[in-house]
Design goal:
This protein has about 90 residues and is an all-alpha fold. Helix content is about 55%, strand content about 0%. It contains three helices and no strands. α1 runs antiparallel to α2 and α1 crosses α3. It is globular and about 35 Å long.
């Protein structure tokens, strides 16, 4: 169980690092209170959102099907999606 907790923390950490990579140019940071906030338009603009998805695919070495990406994508939804795809 401890190993799965570390893996989950690692997934969360990588996702947050990826979001913060794009927020750096706006001098903002992603925090835990933003977990259920939509990423598109509320946190990232459309171009950054697309680049974020590409970065997540590269970081986790997965291909996210287009039909699973929607405008209501949140941190938690990405985390669940990545667990399913791995």
């Amino acid at each position: 169980m401890n190993k799965s907790l570390k893996k989950q923390d690692n997934i969360e950490k990588k996702i947050i690092e990826s979001i913060n990579f794009f927020l750096k140019k706006y001098k903002k940071k992603f925090s835990k209170k933003n977990i259920n906030t939509k990423l598109l338009n509320n946190i990232l603009d459309s171009l950054d959102f697309v680049n974020f998805i590409i970065k997540i695919e590269k970081d986790f070495k997965v291909k996210i099907p287009v039909h699973l990406i929607d405008t209501d994508l949140t941190f938690n939804k990405i985390k669940i999606l990545l667990k399913k795809l791995k």
